[in-house]
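EI: anyone free to look at a 315-residue chain?
SC: sure, send it
EI:
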Amino acid sequence: MLISEPALLESSLAVTTQHWAADVSRQQNAHFHSIRAVNALIQRINSGQAHTNAVLAVVCTMAIGGRLANDDIVWSIHMKGMTYLIRERYARGIFHLPSWFTDLLLSDSINNLFNFPRVYHSEIISSLNLHHNHPILRVATIYDGIAQLWESIALFQNCTQGLAFIVQRIEGLLAKLHHETQSLCLHESAAVQSTALALKIILYMSWPTPIEPNIAVLAGKLKEALCLTERNTCCYLDFSSFQLMIGAVSAEIGSSTRIWFLTKLKAAISVLQSRGWDTLLDLFNRVMIPNERIMAYLKNLWAELHTKKVANTIA
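SC: here you go
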């Protein structure tokens, strides 16, 4: 697909070159490739070929580049473009979406919880809702429920009255969300399973329960599901994957499971840092959620990734 679609080649070169080094010549090359990618994409649209999987991959690549550049305006433009492409496919009677795209959306639903979506957007989910009964729609509902849960937990932490009512609401939301995620954990798709397991871990980490579950066991299952879904991994997606981060903070310290998650993250970070991108972890400064427990776990992880050398072997 990369060779057959010039726009995809150019967009890939643009993203890679932009984050290879900060020197002026490389940034100029990145801009050059970006312009060529946009021009090739416009040609595809004007010639009625915007419905292909390759064109969808082009816009995904450019959207990821916009997010990694921390450029919300560019990212939003590409999200609108992606929504257009999906609707264009539907208009032509093409209702099937490539699995790499839906799997990426599933994974990115976790990123969206932490205000770091790469290709996930509510407009895209709304477009899917027109012609699909994909599990991503159920995940989107769970996402909305977790947002409500975190708001209720924040309210509990900041209020002095009506606490019993707030706790009742929190526990009711938790019970409902656990039920919904559990059904997805049994789905035949490993991509759906990994997303559901990450959501389940997030639920347990959000609010203490009378009987604390063994979250480390869930982290192990998350690792297994991710191993089943792995394609040719990309360092840009790996280092910015909140699924991997949630796995790392929930796995038992010193365990082979935690080493696996840390190694995946550190390997991706090392590659990008070797290209001169020393400030990539600063991207996560935009991450701010109302759940203090999970934020504390993530901040500790980022500090560890900054300073600790992780083994090169993956368990």
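EI: The chain has two domains: 6-96, 135-307.
SC: 👍
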